[in-house]
Amino acid sequence: MRKGPHRLRRVVPALLIAMLAGGAADKPAPDDVKRWRQAFTRPNHVPAPAGNSTTIEKVQLGAALFEDTRLSGSGTVSCSGCHQAELSFSDGIDRHPGLDGEPLDRRTPPLWNMAWGLSWFWDGRSASLEAQAAIPIEDKREMGGDLKRAIEALAADPLMRESFAAAFPEDPAVTRDNLMKALAAFERTLVSPQTRFDRWVKGDDEALDQDELAGLSLFAGKAGCVACHQGWRFTDEAFHDIGLHSEDKGRGPILGVKAADHAFKTPSLCERVWSAPYMHDGSLAAFEDVVDHYANGIVDRPTLSADLPRSIELSKTERAQLVAFLNTLSSDDPPRPASLPPRTITWGATVSQKDRRFSPGAILLKAGEALRILNDDTRTHNVRVGWPEHELQLRRPESRRHGDPRLRPVGSLRHHLRHSSRDAPERGRDLSHQSPEHRALRNLIPFWLI
Fold first, then answer.
1. Among residues 315, 325, 320, which one has the least CA distance to residue 215?
2. Whether the Cβ atoms of residue 193 and residue 338 lie closer than 8 Å to each other
3. What are the Cα distances from residue 170, in Å, to 48, 173, 329?
4. What's the rounded mean pLDDT across residues 128-143?
């Protein structure tokens, strides 16, 4: 039984995950334990955009709207109908029935830890939680809502008018923008609670047994799971074709790039025990099926992710150990959101990397501002982030292959960045020392990791 939420610690860059390569072992080496604990440390605050700071009144309004059936066309469907709290804000089935009676195209995703996301939906079509909130409401097969009429109905409700005024004193009106901001503010509070694995990360050596630690070694080593399932949320926020039997093209049509066909966003592994079945189509019923897929069920095609191991030899014991570790990422009882203080994040600068050059070439950020790196180079490439203590590699699978214009904040210390082309045969090879064109930004810059 979990005894309550624990105090969360400052996040360490997920870039440390690049240091975790190594084979499985029954008992991890001390250096591995130290690195793993650094790489999987949780943050101590919830980020919120400057244009939608988190307040109690706004969150309370968003929670009420999340349950409000007036947002739907029929007046009978709410957001919580699919995103059920007791099922990790998912619904427990492979594909939820649409309003037409037919299964929806994709699995209902859980809503844990959305505050740290970079894009939303399985195909990443939405760039913010605020923009995301309107899409299922207006979708004819999901909620079939008409937001104009829904807003009129809410505005006619004295209690709702009062709630909107309290949540948005600077703009005390029932509007579409305020409705989306309230829903997003509520969703940002859905932080997954501490698990046994988190207790182990914080230093409790007895939190995991020998098989679970062996599973962690496999996860970060031989099985290669950590290539995509990175950081405390166990996701790289990128899109990968993992070789599922599916005709769904996923990210490809969103980008208009065929090389991104069949690619879907890496799901977080937090509280996944409570959100089976798995994958974008709900086609895998249990963790055992997921492990079997990666071991011997991958469909070979040209769009397969470069980060996907093509062959993984796992014994029956190793598969069981890997599943045992995955179970430690979920609560023993139905999870309830943890409480974390909000922190408003101000974006200080955006860096482009077109044509093998970072632009601008130098940046000065104020304390507390965040840096965004725009992945807008269409060629295969890496971005490296480093500081004196470490030389770490950030590999963004989609940005290397498809030029996806996604933004990512990347650090909390004083860093330098440099650009590496992957035109050379050696995968991931750092070419920044070979050509001035690859050298772009080596200025020391302070910014926050969020």
1. 325
2. yes
3. 18, 9, 41
4. 96
Rounded distance between C-alpha atoms, residue 328 and residue 367, angstroms: 36
Q: State the Cα–Cα distance between residues 264 and 74, nearest whole angstrom.
A: 31
Tell me whether strands 46-49 and 342-351 are parallel, antiparallel or unpaired. Answer: parallel
What SS3 state is found at 389? coil
Element (H, E) at 73: none
Does this model's pTM top 0.90? My answer is no
- Per-residue pLDDT band at 86 (split at 50, 70, 90): confident
- Residue 92 has a CB neighbour count (10 Å cut-off) of 15
Phi and psi at 420, nearest 5°, equal: -130, 130
Q: Which helix (H) or strand (E) holds 132?
A: helix 129-138
Q: Are 109 and 93 in contact (CB under 8 A)?
A: no
Bridge partners of 407, per DSSP, are: 374
Helix (H), strand (E) at residue 195: none
**CA gap 261, 249 in Å, rounded:** 5
* pLDDT (0 to 100) of residue 338: 85
Residue in the block written with tokens 């014994």: 315
Q: What is the dihedral of CA 117, 118, 123, 125, to 10 degrees?
A: 120
Alpha carbons 307 and 386: distance in angstroms, whole number: 21
What is the C-alpha separation between 122 and 141, in angstroms, rounded? 17
Q: Kindly tell me if the per-residue pLDDT of 306 is higher than 70.
A: yes
Q: Which of 137, 153, 131, 148 is nearest to 82 (CA)?
A: 137
Length of the chain as a residue count: 450
pLDDT tens figures, 209-248? 999 999 999 999 999 999 999 999 999 999 999 999 999 9
**First and final CA of the chain: distance in angstroms?**
30
